[in-house]
C-alpha cells in the first residue's frame, strides 16, 4: 500500500490517478497510522514552500514523515521534493523536513522563469527510479525554485541554462522536481519503479 500524504497543499488526485492506472494499491490520508502502515509514501506539493510547510506542521505529520523515511521509500514530487531539503529561501527562510542536505532557492538562469514544460533528463548516477529509462527521456516541469545540493544526492538533472537537479535521492528518500504523473510513459515508469521499491 502506498499512502499519498494529504496535508491540504498537494496535487493529490492526479498522482492517485496515475497509481490507479498502474494498479498500484494506494490511499490518500492524513492519518499517522496510515503512514505507519504503508509500504511507501508519496509527498506531493503545489504552491509556495512556507505555506506548504505550515500546513504540514498543522497536521502534526512532520515527525511521522521523518521517522517513516528511515524505514520505507518516500517520494516527494515538485514542491514535495523541495520540502525534503533542510530549508528554502522562497519568500522567507523556512525550515524543511531535513531529509536531504541542501537548500531551495531561486533558479538563476538566462531563460524565462518559471521553468515550465518538457525537458530531457541527464543521468548522473544509477538509481532504482531510472530503471527502464533512457538518457534524454523528457519529463514535465513547472517551478521557479530549485535544489542546491551535493552531487552525491542527484540522480538526474536537466539543462535550463543551469543544471537543475531533477531527481534526487538519499537512502530511502527520493524526490522528483518534475511531475511524473504528468510526464507520459516516462513518468509512469518512474512511478512503477517506485511501486517496485515499496514491495521489497
From TrEMBL:
Q: Some GO term, biological process aspect, for this entry: which one? A: L-histidine biosynthetic process
Keyword flag Hydrolase: yes
Catalytic reactions on record: L-glutamine + H2O = L-glutamate + NH4(+); 5-[(5-phospho-1-deoxy-D-ribulos-1-ylimino)methylamino]-1-(5-phospho-beta-D-ribosyl)imidazole-4-carboxamide + L-glutamine = D-erythro-1-(imidazol-4-yl)glycerol 3-phosphate + 5-amino-1-(5-phospho-beta-D-ribosyl)imidazole-4-carboxamide + L-glutamate + H(+)
What EC number(s) are associated with this protein in UniProt? 4.3.2.10, 3.5.1.2
Q: Which Gene3D superfamilies does this entry report, sorted A to Z?
A: 3.40.50.880
The annotated pathway is: Amino-acid biosynthesis; L-histidine biosynthesis; L-histidine from 5-phospho-alpha-D-ribose 1-diphosphate: step 5/9
- Alphabetical UniProt keywords: Amino-acid biosynthesis, Cytoplasm, Glutamine amidotransferase, Histidine biosynthesis, Hydrolase, Lyase
* One Gene Ontology molecular-function label: lyase activity
Is Signal given among the entry's keywords?
A: no
Active site (UniProt): 78, 179, 181
- Principal localization reads cytoplasm
Q: Which PANTHER family match?
A: IMIDAZOLE GLYCEROL PHOSPHATE SYNTHASE SUBUNIT HISH
Q: What is this protein called?
A: Imidazole glycerol phosphate synthase subunit HisH
Its encoding gene is what?
Answer: hisH
Amino acid at each position: 500500500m502506498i499512502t499519498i500524504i494529504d496535508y491540504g497543499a498537494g496535487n493529490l488526485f492526479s498522482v492517485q490517478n496515475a497509481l490507479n492506472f498502474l494498479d498500484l494499491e494506494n490511499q490518500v490520508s492524513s492519518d499517522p497510522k496510515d503512514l505507519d502502515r504503508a509500504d511507501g509514501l508519496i509527498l506531493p506539493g503545489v504552491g509556495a514552500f512556507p505555506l506548504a510547510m505550515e500546513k504540514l506542521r498543522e497536521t502534526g505529520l512532520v515527525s511521522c514523515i521523518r521517522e517513516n523515511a528511515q524505514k520505507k521509500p518516500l517520494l516527494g514530487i515538485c514542491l514535495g521534493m523541495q520540502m525534503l531539503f533542510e530549508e528554502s529561501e522562497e519568500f522567507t527562510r523556512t525550515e524543511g523536513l531535513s531529509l536531504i542536505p541542501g537548500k531551495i532557492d531561486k533558479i538563476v538562469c538566462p531563460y524565462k522563469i518559471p521553468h515550465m514544460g518538457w525537458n530531457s533528463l541527464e543521468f548522473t548516477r544509477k538509481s532504482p527510479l531510472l530503471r527502464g529509462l533512457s538518457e534524454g527521456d523528457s519529463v514535465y516541469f513547472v517551478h521557479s525554485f530549485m535544489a542546491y545540493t551535493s552531487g552525491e544526492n542527484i540522480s538526474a538533472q536537466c539543462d535550463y541554462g543551469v543544471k537543475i537537479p531533477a531527481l534526487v535521492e538519499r537512502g530511502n528518500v527520493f524526490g522528483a522536481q518534475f511531475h511524473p504523473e504528468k510526464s507520459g510513459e516516462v513518468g509512469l515508469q518512474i512511478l512503477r519503479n517506485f511501486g517496485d521499491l515499496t514491495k521489497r
